[in-house]
Design brief:
By secondary structure, this protein is mainly alpha-helical. The chain has seven helices and two strands; from the N terminus they run αββαααααα.
Length: 189
Amino acid sequence: MKIRIKKITFSDYPEFRPNIIPREMFRVGSFGGTYWRPIYSSVTGKNYQNKHQHTRIKKYWKNIDEMYLSDTKYKKNINYYKVKCGSSLEDWESSGWITKHDPYGWVQWYCHFFAGRRTPDDRRQINRWLNFTGPNGRFKKNLLRKIIRANTVYDDLSISPVIRQNLLHWAYQITEKDLEEEKKIYKIK
């Protein structure tokens, strides 16, 4: 199953340029199928379940099996790159990455943002995305440099599948254009 890349733009935040829509992230396999599992949020002091069935975003999951969305057991074989990656909800909360707006985290925020919701948390979340996978994002740059050092092509999936899976969790897949732009920086043909 191939990831469908889209040109995504937001007029109110033009620098925010993910290339994978929320539905696609889960259709191809993310978070070991556990992202929307039942949770207890220490940030809000509440239990949550079925938050992916919120009226605004439930349309994204049409014809996607629940095992890709809200299973309680992490299954790396569901992930697109067949690797385990990411931190726990507890790690995210203790790092201050979770707010009351979206107790599940960045992807919950992205789903709602993509559907048109705006909150006071938007700038912070977009800055997190930019730092991770934006034009100078550390994970994106890291992967591109590994590809250049290996003298291979952008879609050589043997290069850093864990970083690739992490980028997928941040709604991005590197493209041939990304690699060409990075090569220009280093004057590589």
